[in-house]
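Quick review question:
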């Protein structure tokens, strides 16, 4: 068939089934007709979303499909298929949050770091490679802001101001917004789970003093804001405070990597004896008055404060 009526768009540029492409090539067709070029979808993949001009210019002809992480069950199945045990697969899934590249890096780590256990080798490899991919293009001010933001559940301007007193909060916010792994959320900026874990892990190892100082500053700022918070926002402050606690049981209960296994219900006055007993069991001798004061603090969800007090002492 003559090629002159065809376009410069090749069938290979579409995600067609290999058998279909082979049949087209065998019949001598390599380029689309004008009608085919208009009707066959063109898919572009990348870490950054389409710019505004694309959305306004193409209108309904442009469809965006965000690629999410794998569900915990699917991530675990992939890791077990690659030879990891159930326990190792569960630990790797918790750290990677199902990020496809992170999972593949974790699998490759088995041979690259034979001196470490599978989960430890996976964490080391994932942190190193993802840091290189996502962070290599950031300048020093942006990296400092990202380090601080990754210690938080949801960065807001007041929290960034508390953690970075030498950086105007609007400037810090503007440094984070354009990053391809940051989105807007109803209660603050949302950082991609895997990137947040990677950056926080690097900061924890490389500068533990800064890591601890950020978390302390965040805790104090959240407590200050909480005193004037309306009742509708108490859930958000409780979640932000709970996120600052690095107790694995609490973190998995409130921020699970899979479906929720536990339901957290409001505490009732009749529960005070049991709640106090739990708090005392997890606090050092003589320190149980901290939990008792927290139980009676006005405006604070009782169950949330009990979990906080118990986890801080664990």
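Suggested answer, residue by residue:
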């Amino acid at each position: 068939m003559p090629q002159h009526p065809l376009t410069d768009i090749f069938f290979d540029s579409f995600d067609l089934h290999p058998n279909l492409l082979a049949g087209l090539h065998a019949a001598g067709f390599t380029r689309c007709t004008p009608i085919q070029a208009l009707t066959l979808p063109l898919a572009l993949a990348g870490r950054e979303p389409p710019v505004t001009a694309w959305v306004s210019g193409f209108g309904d002809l442009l469809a965006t499909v965000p690629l999410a992480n794998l569900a915990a069950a699917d991530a675990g199945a992939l890791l077990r298929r690659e030879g990891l045990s159930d326990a190792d697969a569960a630990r790797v899934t918790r750290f990677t949050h199902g990020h496809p590249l992170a999972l593949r890096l974790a699998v490759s780590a088995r041979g690259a770091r034979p001196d470490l256990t599978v989960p430890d080798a996976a964490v080391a490899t994932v942190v190193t490679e993802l840091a290189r991919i996502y962070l290599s293009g950031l300048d020093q001010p942006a990296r400092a802001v990202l380090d601080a933001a990754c210690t938080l559940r949801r960065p807001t301007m007041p929290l960034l101001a508390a953690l970075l007193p030498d950086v105007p909060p609007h400037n810090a916010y503007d440094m984070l917004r354009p990053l391809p792994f940051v989105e807007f959320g109803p209660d603050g900026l949302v950082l991609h789970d895997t990137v947040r874990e990677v950056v926080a892990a690097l900061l924890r190892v490389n500068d533990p003093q800064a890591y601890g100082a950020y978390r302390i500053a965040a805790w104090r700022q959240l407590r200050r804001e909480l005193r004037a918070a309306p009742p509708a926002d108490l859930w958000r402050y409780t979640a932000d405070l709970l996120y600052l606690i690095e107790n694995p049981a609490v973190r998995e209960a409130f921020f699970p990597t899979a479906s929720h296994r536990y339901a957290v219900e409001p505490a009732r006055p009749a529960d005070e004896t049991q709640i106090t007993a739990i708090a005392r069991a997890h606090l050092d001798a003589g320190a149980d008055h901290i939990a008792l004061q927290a139980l009676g603090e006005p405006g604070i969800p009782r169950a949330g404060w009990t979990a906080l007090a118990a986890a801080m002492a664990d």
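Why it works: Residues 208-226 form the longest helix (19 residues). Residues 297-314 have pLDDT under 50 and may be disordered.
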